[in-house]
């Protein structure tokens, strides 16, 4: 009996201790919960006071996402997601003109390294960046091909110091070397690609072309085969120009409105072939400005090679016959 009483007493004491512990634990939990509640309330109050801008920002991003989804769903080709500044942004802080002053059109080819030293048309990325940065620092605005067309054909005003940056052939290094520089400086450019060489060993891929086009770089035609148009009949030229236009448009989803003639060569049939193939402009490599007095199928350009520095370019574009 004594053992039973002892066991009961021991059990009773343990139960009392457990009850006290439970009460203590419940009290501690209650204190902690009250503290957490106060902190949460204060945090929410802080967000409410401080974060109107944050909430507005979230709402804006949501609307932006919906807008981008709408672009994708409707296949609006001329509205790239992460693109260059709009025409309004480019023109709003510069002097503009409607005078027929003409526009210098620079013609580059490869932006890379010539280990052989035998190709003057390969300009190093460092030199190309020097050219682009100097143009920007000296107040030049790089136009899109459509902005040039509007100026030449539709008499629309452009910045007083306007320029068109072009590349011929569609080399892969236009994507790997030139494109990052253009993006860094937020500059437009136009690339004339040879459609039969797309996806070739030294040429841009269709995916790279699409990416650049979506960003805001204009992709135009340098014919199908890069053969001299001057040595072709009218029908052969029409085929070269029409097929190239169609193939590029299938990649970019945008209208191709300009062609550059391989080696700058053309003949009496070229003007008709270019117009009948659906182009608005054609470019040679004859030295001079592109202006409204030109035949729009025979626009001038200034070829740039590896020997040019900024002083050379600056002298030429300010002293060339307009």
Automatic annotation (TrEMBL):
Q: Which PROSITE patterns does the record cross-reference, listed alphabetically?
A: NODB (PS51677)
InterPro entries, alphabetized: Glyco_hydro/deAcase_b/a-brl, NODB_dom, Polysacch_Deacetylase
Sequence ranges assigned to domain NodB homology in this UniProt record: 161-322
Tell me where it resides.
Answer: Secreted
GO cellular component annotations of the record: extracellular region
Pfam family for this entry, one:
Polysacc_deac_1
**Keyword check for Transmembrane:** yes
Q: Please verify whether the record's keywords include Aminoacyl-tRNA synthetase.
A: no
> What are this entry's molecular-function GO terms?
hydrolase activity, acting on carbon-nitrogen (but not peptide) bonds
Q: Which SUPFAM superfamilies match?
A: Glycoside hydrolase/deacetylase (SSF88713)
CDD domains named among the record's database cross-references = CE4_NodB_like_5s_6s
Q: Which PANTHER family match?
A: POLY-BETA-1,6-N-ACETYL-D-GLUCOSAMINE N-DEACETYLASE, PTHR34216
Q: Specify the protein name.
A: Polysaccharide deacetylase
- Species whose genome carries this gene: Clostridium butyricum E4 str. BoNT E BL5262
């Amino acid at each position: 009996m004594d053992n039973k009483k002892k066991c009961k007493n021991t059990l009773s004491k343990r139960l009392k201790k457990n009850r006290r512990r439970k009460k203590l634990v419940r009290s501690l939990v209650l204190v902690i919960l009250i503290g957490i509640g106060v902190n949460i309330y204060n945090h929410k109050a802080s967000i409410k006071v401080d974060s109107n801008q944050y909430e507005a920002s979230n709402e804006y991003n949501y609307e932006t996402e919906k807008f981008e989804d709408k672009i994708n769903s409707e296949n609006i080709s001329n509205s790239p997601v992460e693109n260059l500044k709009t025409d309004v942004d480019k023109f709003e802080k510069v002097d503009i003109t409607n005078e027929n002053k003409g526009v210098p059109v620079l013609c580059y080819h490869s932006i890379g390294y010539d280990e052989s030293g035998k190709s003057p048309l390969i300009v190093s990325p460092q030199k190309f960046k020097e050219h682009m940065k100097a143009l920007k620092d000296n107040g030049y605005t790089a136009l899109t091909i459509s902005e040039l067309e509007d100026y030449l054909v539709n008499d629309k005003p452009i910045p007083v110091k306007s320029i068109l940056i072009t590349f011929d052939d569609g080399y892969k290094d236009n994507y790997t070397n030139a494109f990052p520089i253009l993006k860094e400086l937020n500059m437009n450019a136009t690339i004339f690609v040879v459609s039969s060489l797309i996806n070739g060993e030294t040429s841009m891929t269709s995916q790279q072309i699409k990416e650049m086009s979506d960003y805001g770089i204009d992709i135009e035609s340098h014919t199908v085969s890069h053969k001299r148009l001057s040595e072709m009949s009218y029908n052969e030229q029409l085929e070269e120009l029409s097929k190239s236009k169609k193939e590029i448009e299938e990649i970019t989803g945008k209208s191709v409105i300009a062609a550059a003639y391989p080696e700058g060569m053309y003949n009496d049939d070229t003007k008709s072939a270019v117009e009948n193939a659906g182009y608005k402009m054609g470019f040679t490599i004859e030295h001079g400005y592109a202006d409204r007095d030109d035949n729009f199928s025979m626009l001038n350009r200034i070829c740039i090679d590896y020997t040019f520095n900024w002083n050379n370019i600056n002298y030429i574009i300010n002293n060339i016959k307009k």
